[in-house]
Amino acid sequence: MIRLGVNIDHVATLRQARLGLEPDPVAAAMEAVLGGADGITVHLREDRRHIQERDVRILRQMVPCGLNLEMAVSRDIIAFACEILPEEATLVPEKREELTTEGGLDVLAHLAAVEECMGQLKDRGIMVSLFIDPDPRQIEAAHRLGSYAVEFQTASYSEAKTATGRAESLQRLVDSSRMAASHGIHVHMGHGLNYQNVFPIAAIPQVEELNIGHSIVARSVLVGMRQAVIDMKGAIAQGRNGTGLRHH
Q1: Chain segment 188-229, per-residue pLDDT in tens
Q2: Structure pTM?
Q3: Whole-angstrom distance, CA of residue 57 vs CA of residue 60
Q4: Residue 83's Cα: distance from chain center in Å?
Q5: Looking at the annotation, which residues are catalytic?
Q6: What is the C-alpha to C-alpha distance for residues 138 and 52, in angstroms, rounded to an integer?
Q7: 134 pLDDT above the threshold of 80
Q8: Strand, helix or coil for residue 37
Q9: Integer Cα distance of 209 and 197 in angstroms
């Protein structure tokens, strides 16, 4: 069964819109866990636009199923991660002006910095995943650095405008998953996945974990976080066993 990491960043986005106290992302995380989430994912950005240190500290104490901290290769964030000790850290690229993470981390271009960061995190017992494009060169770099997992960014698939473009993007994800698994790297995926397009992704045999946030948080506004997670877990299960509707 594929694990589902529920990203609760955008619960915090709503809270920060008024700089108030609600909705509380910690409460949302607990509801997600009750709905069957296999982990909670948060991105502590350098500009603190949504998730705050306070959230991560409380989540670290409260989440029973594992905390995945998405983070830039940044000195202060690395120090914070080494203090908090999440079960997993996912290294992602970060630009302050972007609405959400755009593209994967260019491991090749920042090899020394990524290696140093990974070393510090590993020394503290934190599993490290690299958020990368489905690119053989990036996979080889991740393998060279001894990454526990890679999370392939699925934006090119989820944002494809044509059936041909979507099929080509899906095939790259299939091929990249095989390559990563052949190197002994665990395969995760995420970015732009929703209740309609997740089925073909969940059908890829090597995929072990999906990290999904915006779609679940958006649905939770209508049906509640617990039910939104239950529905996504069901969609993933249907994709895995081949009973889900294919995205066209």
Answers
A1: 999 999 999 999 999 999 999 999 999 999 999 999 999 999
A2: 0.93
A3: 5
A4: 21
A5: 43, 70, 191
A6: 30
A7: yes
A8: coil
A9: 16
Specify if 96 maps to a domain: yes
Q: How far apart are CA 125 and CA 106, in angstroms?
A: 24
The CATH number of whichever domain residue 85 belongs to comes to 3.20.20.70
Q: Which two tokens stand for residue 161?
A: 């405008």
Rg of the chain over all Cα atoms, to the nearest angstrom: 17
Cβ atoms of 198 and 245 closer than 8 Å: no
Residue with tokens 């609405």: 99
CB of 225 within 8 A of CB of 35?
A: yes
CA distances from 40 to 87, 155, 215 (A): 10, 20, 15
Q: Is residue 82 situated within a structural domain?
A: yes
Give kind and range of the element (H or E) at residue 132.
strand 127-132
- Give how many domains the chain has, as a whole number: 1
Strand, coil or helix: 137: helix
Q: How many CB atoms lie within 10 A of CB 32?
A: 32
